[in-house]
Design brief:
Blueprint: H1 2-11, H2 14-45, H3 48-59, H4 61-75, H5 78-101, H6 107-131, H7 141-170, H8 173-192, H9 206-219, H10 221-236, H11 244-251, H12 255-277, H13 282-305, H14 309-337, H15 340-368, H16 374-412
């Protein structure tokens, strides 16, 4: 009942309602393109190393650029930065379409385009996350962050499902075209929308600005602990997503349609996790993140040895649910503890951990997959995640006390 009340309050606000709708549509296009691209790479190479390298190329720029993007997000109007990144996504999609339909596409072009995509994305995501609180009433900002997490995961269901069907019937190219088309309404919305006033402190220099964000995050133990915990899970646990084409084709024998269902299952679990998270008070989220980290690790271990498509679907539902709690719970806690003037830089570090470490993880795990069965590699990552989750859970009680103190300090404006 509480979640229905909170969500209804959000959707009564016209700005947030349109943001949700148009961003959902663009996300669906993005997931269709991502699914088609992964399948295309697998079809061309049948290599776990190349699959891992492509995912790594699209994410590793986050290690370099996400902290810098936080500076832009705090220094300039977030809406304008987001318009720029969305237009660059259109350029990326158009180049992919041209290469595909002129039969020029190969793994090297895909790697190059993936790096281009990763650079854009490393600026887009922190800006988008930091913009959300400015689209709603201040008292609804944390709920909006949790609810908006449902966007990407609803698209994570629809995009791969639609993409899997379209790939089977028409090939990958139709997904690339639809992605470009579906991004246009969101760009128009961003150009027209108004936001609450953004707090921008006097600008000194990029280096000092970045250093301030690092120091703020390092000196606050709850923030530091959350970022390290998330980085471990992204590196060792999340890389299984990049290898779903291998699990689908070589282990479960379900092909492109199966890939869409597997990806969609994790998205469905994530949506449920997003709704559940929106009902929880901020202080309780840290404990929930720790417990879900342990459940995620155990389910990933089971998924790595499963040879049943139905069992794998069920496990992916739980994996989607639990990682949603870990990822968005961390995001919500970080934003709750961060003043608006530094929020972009803290979220930049969050994106570095979630995407940058994921990119390195897929590259390392993909390379290991060349010498060991991908099930063994995935199981090893799951075990390391489990050890990290147990350690984090032990630390939670003392961290919660510091979390409460930090939120109180932020609300007091000191």
């Amino acid at each position: 009942m509480e979640i229905l009340t909170k969500t209804t309050s959000l959707f009564k606000q016209k700005t947030y309602r349109y943001f949700f709708i148009w961003q959902l549509i663009s996300y669906v296009g993005g997931w269709m393109q991502g699914t088609a691209l992964n399948w295309l790479v697998y079809r061309l190479t049948h290599s776990s190393l190349i699959l891992g390298a492509v995912v790594c190329a699209s994410l590793v720029p986050s290690l370099l650029f996400s902290p810098i993007s936080g500076i832009l997000t705090d220094r300039f109007k977030r809406k304008n930065v987001l318009i720029a990144t969305q237009c660059l996504f259109l350029v990326h999609g158009t180049l992919l379409i041209i290469l595909f339909f002129t039969n020029s596409i190969n793994e090297w072009y895909i790697l190059g385009l993936s790096i281009f995509f990763g650079i854009i994305n490393s600026f887009d995501i922190p800006t988008r996350e930091a913009l959300i609180p400015l689209l709603v009433k201040e008292e609804d900002s944390l709920n909006a962050i949790s609810t908006s997490s449902i966007l990407g995961n609803a698209a994570n269901i629809l995009g791969p499902l639609i993409g899997g069907i379209l790939i089977t019937k028409y090939g990958e190219g139709i997904c690339f075209i639809l992605n470009v088309v579906l991004h246009v309404p969101f760009i128009i919305f961003l150009i027209l929308v108004g936001t609450r006033k953004q707090v921008i402190k006097e600008f000194t220099s990029p280096l000092i600005h970045m250093k301030e964000g690092f120091i703020f995050s390092w000196r606050n133990k709850p923030i530091k602990a959350l970022l390290i915990f998330l980085g471990m899970f992204s590196f060792f646990g999340l890389s299984f997503i990049a290898f779903l084409p291998i699990f689908s084709d070589e282990i479960l024998h379900t092909g492109a349609k199966g890939l869409g269902l597997l990806t969609g299952a994790s998205g469905l679990g994530a949506i449920v996790g997003g709704f559940y998270l929106a009902t929880r008070p901020v202080v309780s989220i840290k404990r929930l993140v720790a417990y879900c980290g342990m459940i995620f690790s155990m389910c990933l271990l089971c998924f790595s040895i499963s040879k049943s498509f139905i069992v794998s679907i069920l496990l992916l539902l739980i994996l989607g649910f639990t990682f949603m709690i870990v990822e968005v719970g961390t995001n919500t806690l970080l934003q709750a503890m961060s003043p608006d003037y530094i929020r972009g830089r803290v979220i930049g570090l969050f994106i570095t951990m979630i995407m940058g470490m994921f990119s390195l993880g897929t590259l390392v795990m993909g390379a290991l997959g060349k010498y060991f069965p991908i099930q063994t590699v995935t199981a090893t990552g799951a075990f390391i995640c489990l050890v990290s989750a147990i350690y984090f859970t032990i630390k939670v009680p003392s961290l919660i006390k510091e979390l409460v103190a930090l939120i109180d300090k932020k609300e007091a404006g000191t």
